[in-house]
Write a sequence for this structure.
């Protein structure tokens, strides 16, 4: 009997703790060695010691430290403040100054570099531990804020582009499809008196056929913008409809599970769930080449949990995040923004060759609660 192949779920969890990397810039070797030992005892990883500002700037690209512990008074032509300014401008890394000087002009210059901390010599291990911890926390918060800001800018730009593209598409369909139908009806009405060889009945039947085509076009256009089924019947029928429609186009099997979701949800939650499933299915058709797709919607205590799982090609998560931050993936940013608007979270898991899973978790609110 063959042993089942191991999966990612079966793999042992790594207990490796990543230590923050610190570059020590200090021209007194004994002091530098003492700081290096203190950092190691506190759980940091001192990656190198530099005695000059120029050396620190040169080491940063290869070492990529998480934090710079910088003495202000250094040997060489570049002091710690000048070195910190270059490092902040080029690499946006946090710098904590070490100094025995408290002159106002020195502090004024140091402030211009936007340091993440300032420690006066001599200092205790407790002072060093506190300042470094706060500096790293502040830097991480700043990085998250910067990422969020970049995402919002990219999303705003792409939303405007998508809005204009959608308006253009609707305008073209109205002009080319509905406009032609209305023009044909107008022509029939105008020439009915001049066409003696064609009976009014034939003209009426042709006009009725054109009107039927126009109505179908209008319904198709309205459904593409927002399916009336979502408002009239609710989320579950709308999800069944879009799953069936997409499965036919994408040639995959859709398995649906809506256990325990019988009551109507609040309109904003139904809309978010529907749009996230719609975007996920669109991505599956475009990129995944999946054969099976599972859509699961259930209640977990006070939360709604929605997941869309496929067995397709998968993708590299790190590259996807980079594209999303840079604005190259409007769909991912849009799904995340929709989840945030209803107080939820969106998690995307994928491994190349092993498919993908999109999971939305948001507060449960029924239609009665929303009224």
């Amino acid at each position: 009997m063959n042993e089942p192949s191991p999966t990612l779920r079966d793999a042992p969890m790594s207990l490796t703790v990543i230590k923050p990397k610190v570059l020590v810039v200090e021209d007194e070797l004994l002091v530098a060695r003492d700081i290096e030992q203190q950092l190691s005892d506190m759980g940091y990883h001192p990656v190198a010691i530099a005695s000059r500002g120029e050396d620190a700037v040169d080491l940063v690209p290869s070492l990529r430290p998480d934090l710079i512990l910088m003495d202000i008074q250094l040997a060489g032509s570049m002091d710690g403040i000048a070195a910190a300014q270059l490092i902040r401008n080029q690499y946006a890394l946090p710098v904590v100054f070490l100094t025995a000087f408290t002159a106002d002009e020195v502090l004024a210059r140091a402030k211009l570099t936007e340091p993440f901390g300032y420690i006066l010599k001599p200092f205790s291990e407790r002072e060093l531990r506190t300042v470094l911890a706060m500096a790293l926390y502040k830097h991480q918060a700043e990085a998250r804020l910067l990422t969020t800001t970049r995402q919002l800018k990219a999303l705003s730009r792409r939303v405007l582009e998508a809005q204009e593209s959608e308006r253009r598409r609707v305008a073209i369909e109205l002009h080319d499809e509905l406009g032609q139908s209305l023009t044909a009806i107008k022509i029939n009405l105008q020439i009915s008196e001049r066409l003696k060889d064609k009976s009014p009945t034939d003209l009426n039947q042709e006009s009725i056929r054109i009107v039927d085509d126009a109505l179908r076009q209008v319904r198709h256009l309205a459904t593409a913008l927002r399916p009336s089924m979502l408002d009239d019947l609710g989320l579950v029928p709308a999800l069944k409809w879009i799953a069936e429609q997409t499965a036919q186009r994408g040639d995959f099997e859709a398995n649906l599970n809506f256990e325990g979701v019988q009551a109507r949800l609040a309109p904003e939650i139904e809309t978010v769930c529907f749009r996230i499933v719609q975007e996920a299915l669109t991505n599956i058709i475009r990129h995944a080449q999946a054969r099976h797709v599972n859509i699961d919607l259930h209640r977990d205590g006070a939360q709604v949990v929605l997941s869309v799982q496929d067995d397709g090609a998968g993708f590299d998560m790190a590259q996807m995040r980079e594209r999303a931050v840079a604005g190259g993936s409007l769909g991912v940013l849009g799904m995340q923004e929709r989840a945030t608007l209803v107080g939820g979270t969106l998690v995307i898991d994928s491994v190349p060759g092993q498919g993908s899973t999109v999971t939305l978790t948001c507060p449960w609110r029924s239609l009665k609660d929303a009224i």
